[in-house]
Design a protein that fits this description.
The chain is built from five helices and three strands, in the order βαααββαα. It has helices at 13-80, 85-120, 149-168, 217-284, 289-323, and strands at residues 2-9, 175-185, 199-209. Helix 1 (13-80) runs antiparallel to helix 3, helix 2 (85-120) packs parallel to helix 5 (289-323) and helix 3 packs antiparallel against helix 4.
């Protein structure tokens, strides 16, 4: 026997389920896109922090070399009787304080390196270096017209829930099905009179089934589907409010980060000139060499702060672009 059944009408339930599945697939694609953008943002932030830490390490090493030179000169002056022993001790103590700055920069580099390795999927033991110069990014002057993946995901979830709600109403519709069956039997009971031979017969029909009463189960199913639509719309509304707040916060963060970077850039030449004058005064004997060590330490700290300010500003620019629905910006 060979039997074939074909669904003719199910109240558009199958169509609704197929459409809901497509929207679920689109929602999953939006979630994947959000994950990709978040990962790109983590990689960029770790790379900029690594670059800032490398700048801080170079500045601290330079300051240590300057402090060591001044401490040696102080020791020579002490042996010559032109400086106090306390001056030599203070010089070495200040040099140790700069070494603490170096250790902090090394720790920041290790942390940034670990974060970067994890983000790009390589072993943490890899020794990566930032080779691009650390420069501030320019923010886009006009908000982009792109849509955030979270909003696209929320919209697809609403459409999926709506399709499921429409499909749930099919429980009140009849189920119509066509069937065809071919029998080749010996004896074939559909042949009269029966005889000991193989005979083939066909059967074709249409059947309709309709659930007249199921104790309210269909009504509950429809209510649950409608509730799912309402919840999806509420989630979208809450998400839009959260995105609006995030956009305002990211703009404020960018203004603050840019202001910090501008102040640090203006202070850097002042600190360099202050160090030059301190070196001149110490060589002329009008100031202690401890002053030159302090100025070198302050310059190293300012260079480190400037690098960190640039990294923070770039991260703020990137976060703002993501909040606007743009691709995470590297340049």
């Amino acid at each position: 026997s060979l039997r074939v059944d074909q669904l003719i009408w199910d109240g558009n339930r199958s169509r609704g389920l197929i459409a809901a599945t497509r929207h679920d697939q689109a929602s999953a694609g939006s979630a994947k896109e959000k994950t990709r953008r978040d990962l790109s943002a983590r990689v960029a932030a770790a790379y900029w922090n690594l670059s800032a830490a490398q700048t801080a390490i170079r500045a601290a090493n330079t300051a240590i070399a300057r402090a060591d030179s001044q401490a040696n000169l102080t020791a020579i002056s002490y042996r010559q009787g032109t400086a106090l022993e306390q001056d030599t001790l203070q010089a070495r103590l200040r040099q140790r304080q700069i070494e603490i700055q170096l250790e902090q920069a090394l720790a920041a580099r290790d942390f940034s390196l670990q974060t970067l390795c994890i983000a790009i999927g390589v072993p943490v033991a890899y020794d990566l270096q930032s080779v691009d110069p650390l420069k501030p990014l320019e923010a886009t002057p006009v908000p982009a017209t792109g849509e955030r993946p979270e909003l696209a995901q929320a919209r697809e979830q609403i459409l999926s829930a709506s399709e499921m709600a429409a499909a749930s109403k099919s429980n009140y519709q009849p189920l119509v099905q066509a069937s065809a069956q071919y029998d080749y039997l010996n004896p074939n009971q559909r042949i009269f009179p029966n005889h000991a031979e193989f005979d083939g017969t066909w059967r074709v029909g249409v059947a309709a089934t309709w659930n007249l009463y199921r104790g309210g189960a269909d009504d509950i199913s429809i209510r649950k589907a409608k509730l799912a639509v309402q919840q999806a719309r509420q989630r979208e509304a809450m998400l839009r409010d959260a995105i609006g707040q995030e956009l305002s916060r990211r703009e404020t963060e960018l203004r603050l980060a840019r202001r910090k970077r501008e102040i640090a850039e203006r202070n850097l030449p002042l600190a360099k000139r202050d160090l030059e004058l301190a070196n001149i005064r110490s060589q002329a004997g009008t100031a202690l060499r401890l002053e030159a060590i302090d100025r070198a330490s302050a310059l190293a700290q300012l260079e480190s702060d400037l690098a960190l300010a640039i990294a923070n500003e770039n991260i703020a620019v990137m976060n703002l672009s993501i909040a606007r629905g743009e691709e995470p910006r590297w340049k």
